[in-house]
Amino acid sequence: MITFRDAALVVALAITAVTAQAQQANSVVMKNFDFAPMSLTVKAGSTVTWKNTDGEPHTVTSVDGLFRSGALDTDETYSFTFAKPGTYKYACSIHPRMIGTIIVK
């Protein structure tokens, strides 16, 4: 017999899983001197979070000057909310070959 407490726990776990998936869906990882994924599509109003998993610092710097992180050390993050639709190109200002794109619909 399933109790109310058991049902509440199942619902709480499901909500946590959906929230974690949504957060991961709007995440970019800096790994092996690349952004992964290199291109990410999100809805207007979404927040994207970048996380540096390399042993070297990286930045997230938009080509058009809209956003710019400081140097992110290992396991540090930077987040930016994209209010308007468009295509936003960015790079690491320390390692300019690291490039990425956020497409906002």
CATH topology label: Immunoglobulin-like
Q: What's the tally of helices? A: 1
What is the CATH first-level class name?
Mainly Beta
Overall geometry: globular
CATH superfamily placement: Cupredoxins -  blue copper proteins
Describe what is shown at a glance.
It contains one helix and eight strands. With 105 residues, it is of the alpha/beta class.
Spell out the blueprint of helices and strands.
Blueprint: H1 4-25, E1 27-31, E2 34-36, E3 39-42, E4 46-52, E5 61-62, E6 77-82, E7 86-91, E8 99-104
Parallel strand pairs: 1-4, 3-8
Antiparallel strand pairs: 1-2, 4-6, 5-7, 7-8
Describe this entry's structure for a reader.
- The structure is a single chain.
- This protein has a single domain (28-104), classed as Cupredoxins -  blue copper proteins (Immunoglobulin-like).
- 21% of the residues lie in helices and 37% in strands.
- It is built from 1 helix and 8 strands, in the order αββββββββ.
- The strands form 2 sheets. It has a 4-stranded mixed beta sheet with strand order 2-1-4-6.
- Strand 7 and strand 8 form a beta hairpin.
- The longest helix is centred in the N-terminal third of the chain and has 22 residues, at 4-25.
- It starts with a helix and ends with a strand.
